[in-house]
UniProtKB/TrEMBL annotation:
GO terms for molecular function: disulfide oxidoreductase activity; isomerase activity. This is Thiol-disulfide isomerase/thioredoxin. The keyword Signal applies. Residues 9-161 form the Thioredoxin domain. Residues 1-20 form the signal peptide.
Length: 164
């Protein structure tokens, strides 16, 4: 009886941290890009690179939250590629506020950001925001800077039309 009670107390004590970790962005490390591409293969996916310290990103994130809500057939993935390390709480807070908490969220987890960017796109110098639209057929369209919602809607419409 005492063991069961003790086990229950331990479980209850660790539950808040386990629940908090469940909503935390996953660490984006070497090999994560290929895993992400494999996991979303054959499904239209919007991948948005942003950062907590990026002014245009703060404006764009809520727009992406609305886009995700309006386009449930599009997988939305965010990757915090901020050069300022160790901002997981600020990252999660911004995603929550933008309506992106239920998206697939990642945060650069490797101090060598250049290596991660090179793995994604060898020509990428690290500018954010950056959006990559991955079509069902795997063709990637890259938008440097802020993405226009009208362009995202048009792309989404073409992806929906491809299934008809």
């Amino acid at each position: 009886m005492k063991r069961r009670f003790l086990a229950t107390l331990i479980l209850l004590a660790t539950l808040p941290s386990a629940l908090a970790a469940a909503g935390a962005p996953k660490p984006f490390e070497r090999g994560s890009w290929q895993k992400l591409l494999h996991a979303h293969a054959g499904h239209p996916t919007l991948v948005h690179f942003w950062g907590v310290t990026c002014g245009p990103c703060k404006v764009e994130l809520p727009q992406l939250g609305r886009f995700m809500k309006d386009h449930p057939g599009i997988d939305v993935v965010t990757i915090s590629a901020d050069l300022v390390p160790n901002l997981p709480e600020a990252t999660r807070s911004m995603l929550d506020s933008a309506g992106l908490a239920s998206a697939e969220n990642w945060i650069f987890g490797d101090g060598f950001a250049e290596r991660l960017r090179f793995e994604i796109d060898p020509a990428w110098q690290g500018d954010i925001p950056r959006t990559m639209l991955i079509a069902r057929d795997g063709i990637i369209t890259t938008i440097e800077g802020s993405a226009e919602i009208a362009d995202l809607n048009k792309w989404s419409d073409t992806q929906a039309a491809a299934t008809r």
